[in-house]
Amino acid sequence: MKKFSTLLLAAGLFVSLAGVFSGCTKQGETGPAGTNGTDGTDANETCKQCHAAAVVDRVATEFEVSKHSWGEAAFEEAGNPGCAPCHEQKGFVYVCANNIPSSFTFNSTTGKYVNDYSSVASDAIGEIGCFTCHSSLHTTYGYSDLTSLTTTAPVSMTMLGGAKTINLPADSGKGNLCVKCHQPRPFTCTGPAANDARLLNYDSVKRFPNLVMFDSAAPNANKWVRPSYRMHSHYGAVGAIYAGMGGIEYGDPASYANSPHTTEASCQSCHMAEPMNGIAGGHAFNVRNSKETPLSGSTTWNFNGCNVTGCHANSPISAASTKWTATRAGVKTLLDNLATKINAAGAGHDILHADATSANLWAGVSTGNYDGYLDIYDASANPTGYWRNPYGSGSTNAGKPMFPTIKMVQMGAIINFQLCLREYSLGIHNTQYVTALLNNTIAAMNAAGL
User: Fold this and answer.
1) Where are the alpha helices (H) located in 289-378, listed in sequence order?
2) What is the per-residue pLDDT for 43?
3) Strands 370-374 and 155-156: what pairing?
4) How confident is the model at residue 276, as a pLDDT?
């Protein structure tokens, strides 16, 4: 009986709860519709604005054949703050971001002058790549990121300690990005402590042509630049020549003028011309369809940047054009004539170093295949050098003839020869300036009786 009563109670409770739960299935009135949200960005579609076959993928392929990509300097100069501004990605970004000056400062502690244009050891690393020149990649992840460059500001010339500035106005100053690296390094003096590492004064070189710069009879008394195999203005001559400055400007200042390229074309106009011709143009940055083939060898060119409206469209340039061939032949003759005068200091043996092999980037630019170095013995870099290194050591070096005495005008001639040789184009970059510089230097040598 007790069990039966319990069952009835449980059954009644179930019926009661079922009624309660059945009431929960009833829905209330429909509320107002919500506001539509903003559509999100399709990340894949955003990436494809740049990472497409016709955009970054194409550029990356072109860049592979650029010397900026395959050159060895980024590895050789890693960890070197002084070379990093041009040879290391992070070093270049560092000097741009921090507006590092190109001045020389006297260090009273060491008693030497210091070239302020330098990176820091922690940023002296990195191969040249996309992020070297393009400052805003992967910022908004849109196509506009490609157009922001690391710098287009006027370039203070480190070879002159900031005394002059290069500013290439064409194409919104994009050429300044190139010149930031493609400018010569400075010549620095040696000798007494108060003079050590001081910038060579170009005005003194010009004003005192017969002053002895290096005396072979008293080499240790030299307070100017010490002759050595690598006594040179480095390799970035093209920026200075293109802008029409950087040489020892003998003669009438009015004789120096610039070709229209200086104001009407940027570096990119010719070196990144489209369509490409083999490996010439685009992000390969070459004008020649060749990989370090000497100018004396056969080659083809990309003149598409030259023959655009406003430039040479009405009279297109080709490798057979008189404007091309005559200019280059004329400048080569001037280089040969100046080389002859410089080499006369050796009284029968050249003082300029020659190399006819492909190791010489400037083979064929002059008839003598000079490379801008001096033929001074260096155990590692020039073991077959003819002249003794005045500041070297060892029995091999001691057995060689002493390098001859050099006057200031001869030093000026060497500097100008190196600039006009290593700008590489045989005057095409700035025909008027190169021609005036070489002609006036030869005249200065004649006036000095050399």
Assistant:
1) 322-343
2) 62
3) unpaired
4) 94
Q: What is the pLDDT of residue 44?
A: 72
What per-residue confidence (pLDDT) applies to 81? 95
Q: Which residues contact 136 (CB under 8 A, 6 or more apart)?
A: 144, 145, 148
Residue type, 215: D
Tokens 């370090």 -> residue: 292
> How many degrees, rounded to 5, is the angle at CA 298 between CA 296 and CA 302?
110
Averaged pLDDT for residues 194-199: 76
Diameter of the chain by CA atoms? Answer: 144
Distance CA 136, CA 282 (A): 20
Nearest to 275 by CA among 263, 265, 283: 283
The closest of 402, 360, 358 to 377, measured between CA atoms, is 402
Average pLDDT over residues 259-276: 96
Identity at 293, one-letter amino acid code: T
Say which residues have a Cβ less than 8 Å from residue 263's Cβ, sequence separation at least 6. 168, 169, 170
**β-pairing verdict for 112-115 and 370-374:** unpaired
Q: What is the mean pLDDT of residues 19-41?
A: 64
| Preceding amide of 260 cis, omega within 30 | no
The pLDDT value recorded for residue 131 is 94
Say whether 309 sits in a helix, a strand or coil.
coil
Q: Closest Cα to residue 385, out of 353, 348, 343, 346?
A: 353
Which tokens hold the place of 227? Answer: 């002759």
Any idea what DSSP says for residue 262?
A: H
pLDDT beyond 50 at 1? no
pTM of the model: 0.88
Residues 6+ apart with CB under 8 A from 163: 157
Burial class (CB in 10 A: 0-12, 13-18, 19+), 298: exposed
Q: Strand, helix or coil at 115?
A: strand
CA angle, residues 172, 143, 46, in degrees to nearest 5: 175
Which residues is 112 bridged to in the sheet? Answer: 107
C-beta neighbour count of 206 within 10 angstroms:
17
Nearest to 428 by CA among 353, 336, 308, 319: 319
